[in-house]
Design brief:
Elements (H helix, E strand, L loop, with lengths): L5 H13 L7 H12 L4 H20 L1
Helix pairs in contact: 1-2, 2-3
């Protein structure tokens, strides 16, 4: 379980990450990032990160 202030840390990470995507994709990217940061376990977060990479990184930077 996250400690006090963890929510604000996630918000800052989300906001910083969104600086690198287009305005039209921001809402969808934020939702996908949230799935990574809110995963209950490290292996679930890793799976969400892999899905995020397949959806957003590989098509845009390959």
């Amino acid at each position: 379980m996250a400690g006090p202030g963890a929510g604000s840390d996630v918000s800052h990470r989300d906001l910083h990450s969104l600086n690198f995507c287009s305005w039209k994709d921001r809402k969808a990217v934020a939702a996908d990032l949230r799935r990574i940061y809110e995963a209950a376990a490290a292996d679930m977060a890793a799976a969400e990160l892999d899905a995020f990479e397949e959806k957003w990184v590989l098509p845009h930077f390959s």
